[in-house]
What we know:
- This protein folds into 3 domains: 3-74, Orthogonal Bundle (Arc Repressor Mutant, subunit A), CATH 1.10.10; 83-128 and 204-248, YebC, transcriptional regulation domain (Alpha-Beta Plaits, 2-Layer Sandwich), CATH 3.30.70; 133-202, YebC, transcriptional regulation domain (Alpha-Beta Plaits), CATH 3.30.70.980.
- It is 46% helix and 24% strand.
- The mean pLDDT is 87.
- The chain is α+β, with helices and mostly antiparallel strands.
- Strands 3-1-2-9 form a 4-stranded antiparallel beta sheet. Strands 5-6-4-7 form a 4-stranded antiparallel beta sheet.
- Strand 5 (160-165) and strand 6 form a beta hairpin.
Amino acid sequence: MSGHSKWATTKHQKGAKDAARAKVFAKLIRQIEVAAREGGSDMTANASLRTMYTKARDASVPIDTIERAVKRGSGELEGVRYEAISYEGYAPDGVAVIVECLTDNRNRTGAEIRNLFSKNGGSMAEPGAVSWQFERKGAVPVPRAQDEERVLEVAMEAGGEDLADEDERWVVTSDPADLMAVRAALEEAGLEPGAAELTMVPTSTVEVATESEAKRVLRLIEALDDHDDVQNVYANFDIPDEVMAAYEG
């Protein structure tokens, strides 16, 4: 398992432990509002909203909180209007980074993201400067207790492309168009899939070979991830397992 997968696992575990925090809830609620605004409040016809609903419930967001977010997004209730915006840049050691945000003030958010890059040894880049190094993919987590061969078999038959080992879980990746079909097949097979989501997968990676380099890269990634407006941070680093273990220690 690469260091990048290890970092994804660490984030997943941290998110599960901190799911009751207002910050985590707020990020999910923003995503629900945007999904409802862009595709309507009918979850049967809005795949993005259906995905975000499942993700929020997995994080224990109360149903009434989700319903209010849907109503704000669809215009049934008044609320702040959020827009999606992405930023690109480089972490130390040439690691490519994409930051996805939902904000009600793009000027403020842009300045704050730029400041985080600068303070942590990175630099912002022009749109398109690093995004060509990533591909948009669908991702579905499955509990590690499920049989690997069975998960792979079911996923591939439904359009899955790859299966990654992320320590406590398997993650099936697919073309975005096949995402919900893959999740439905896994659920029908009794394999207990988690919330399906879209992600960015690097097409090539930059090896971060030492603990000091890992600290520099992950300090920026963590700072970006902690920003209230940031929904997702993607980077193409590859930290060897032994270096990641030393960093976590």
